[in-house]
Structure formats: C-alpha cells, structure tokens
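User: For a benchmark we're assembling, each entry needs the component sequences followed by a predicted structure for the full assembly. Here are entry 17's components. Please fill in the structure.
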Amino acid sequence: MRVLVVEDERKVASFIKQGLEEEGYAVDVAADGDEGATLAHVNDYDAILLDVILPKKNGFQVAMELRREGRATPILMMTSRDAPEDVVRGLDAGADDYLSKPFPFEVLVARLRALIRRGSSARLEALGFGPIAMDRLQHRVTAHGKPLDLTPKEFQLLEYFLMHPEEVVRRTTLLEKVWDMHFDPESNVVDVHVGNLRRKLRRAAGEDLLQTIRGVGLILRQGGHDAG
Ligand code: CA
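Assistant: Structure for entry 17:
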C-alpha cells in the first residue's frame, strides 16, 4: 500500500511517515500543495493524507484539482480542531473523510485502513492477463503459478500494462504514470526497464506478451506479431 502525505510541518510529516512505515505502508511526503498535487498526479496512491493549510496550494485546492482530473484516490483531510468549517469545505472539495488535529496515531491508522478498504473495491486487488497473475496487496507476481521476481519499477510497469490490457501504451504515458517528477525525459531508462520486464515475461510465460508497436508504443497481448 502506498500513501502520500501532504504536510508542511516537517516534524508532523516525519512522525506520520515513520509510523505508517512501521505499519507496512510505503510513504511519500510532499511539503507543499503544489508538490502534493504533482505527486498525486504522477503516482498511483492507495490513499492521500492531506493537510488543509499548506504553502503554494491549500488542501482544498489540491483535493479539487485531483477530483477534477478524475482521480478517485481516497483522501483523508487533516483539519484543525478549531476550524470545524474546514470539515465541510474539505468534504465539498472531494475529501472522503477528515481527521481533526491533533489526533492519536491509532485513529489515523484505523481511518486510513477503513478508507483504503472502501476505496479498494473500486481498485482491483488482483490483476491478471493470460498466464500472469498479480496480487497488488502482497506485491507478488506469478507466471503459470510460479513466482516471478521483478524489481519495483518492473512491478509498476507491469501493473500499468495489466490495468490497460490490449491497449497501445505510449512511452510518454509510461513516463508520466510510472516515473516520478525527477525523471529526465531524454534518458532511455524506460526502454531499459521495459526491455528487462519483457525478457522476464517472455522467459516465465513462454510467449511474448509485451509487444512493440513500432513508432507508437507497447501493448500487452497474447498472439499477434511482434514488429519490434
Ligand atoms: Ca499545515
């Protein structure tokens, strides 16, 4: 499970990050609204923990922006106890739940868990295509029932392809959805990771599932003729 924490108070952010990591979550932290919106746009989080008062863009703006983009990621808004009107504004902006600061850490974890559980009925916990099966909760992939060892990047790539089977996926789309904002678009890192994933899939599945459509992109499919 991957969570984004958007919080400008360093101490609070690192306290939450550390606590959630101990609970087994992968946690990214953004220190302002701009960075938060960008990270939420680029990565696929299971939930977003969003503070209201933030530099650059406030929490309401970030929530609204994400909903306008069609992002359904569950949002838990961190409001201030002395500003109950923020709760209404937050929910109106697209937050799914709220938590008044300060809060006991166990409450945060419980709310987050509930939110992800509710949200995950829309998200698929298991993905599959042909001989490939992916368990997103356990972070495991098998081919013909045998474990397939992937790097985190290969896992994310495969996840994206499994969510868009038999669809041509452009390299620029992969850059946008699987890589982070520090990525250099001139580098050939996408091709390297795709190439590795492709070889692993071919070896494990016994067929070429990730095929190149020359000049256009890649497609996850069975059969068909590989042009690349
Ligand atoms: Ca703040």
